[in-house]
């Protein structure tokens, strides 16, 4: 089913706003933690076939779902925050108007109980594609003095959750425990041999690098998934003999401050894509997959 993949994908040739222009409703830009459409499209094209089912248990404004529909797949997403779920529905409708041939649906709910939310999909999904949250807010949209001519930095669209029940509000151990439960539930939705793909990048807390990809790798295996591949999806562009920097203002700002202190910190220019499979046989148990308690 899957083609032989390279270890680096050139997914950052165009900025995110260009990739979304006309393909998503304009309000989609309000979400500060969107998956890059080119990454979603490449994963879906590589690890599924037309007519198959793609699931995103933390779908946000529906990037995975939209790209699946445009590639002729069927897609189901779960989103904890109702305002983003509504935008995901709007984006699915927009994709259909643009000629996408697949079908999709969005369920608002807590994907830590995804088996209860999607009981009709057990063993049917070819691909699960998602990304964990990185906190209650991100850098969002930024305008600095250089941009506006006015002193200070202005930020907007950088909060995506005010609900304390959202995993984004949890400290790292609780976030990982919750994400492990989500992956265990998704493993039940996958058909034997189906793929679970997670896009994730490290982040810094008070200057210290947190290896979130490594932590996700660990909890995915605890959830009964078998590791298959790790791919670097570029966030920068590849020019003629040089890289086209797409790092955020704050990434560059923090890197410059670190260099001034003698610390060789670099801006992150890729996202890790971790690829796992559900075992072909039921010999490997899926810890926690039987949890069915409600919110």
Write the layout of secondary structure elements.
Elements: E1 8-9, H1 16-20, H2 37-47, E2 53-56, H3 63-70, E3 74-79, H4 82-97, E4 104-108, H5 114-117, E5 125-130, E6 141-143, H6 145-148, E7 154-156, H7 172-189, E8 190-200, E9 203-205, E10 208-210, H8 212-222, E11 226-234, E12 237-238, E13 243-244, H9 249-260, E14 270-277
Parallel strand pairs: 1-11, 2-3, 2-5, 3-4, 5-8
Antiparallel strand pairs: 6-7, 8-14, 9-10, 11-14, 12-13
Helix pairs in contact: 2-3, 3-4, 7-8
Give the CA-based shape. globular
The structure class reads alpha/beta
Task: Name the CATH architecture.
Answer: 3-Layer(aba) Sandwich
In the CATH scheme, the class would be Alpha Beta
Tell me about the largest β-sheet: 8 strands, mixed
Total number of helices:
9
Helicity, as a percent range: 25-40%
Q: Report the portion of residues in β strands.
A: 15-25%
- What is the helix/strand order? EHHEHEHEHEEHEHEEEHEEEHE
CATH level 4 superfamily = Vaccinia Virus protein VP39
| Average pLDDT number | 85
Cα-atom radius of gyration: 19 Å
Summed up, the domain count is 1
Widest beta sheet: strand line-up: 1-11-14-8-5-2-3-4
Distance between the termini: 37 Å
**Could you please say which CATH topology applies here?**
Rossmann fold
Overall number of strands: 14
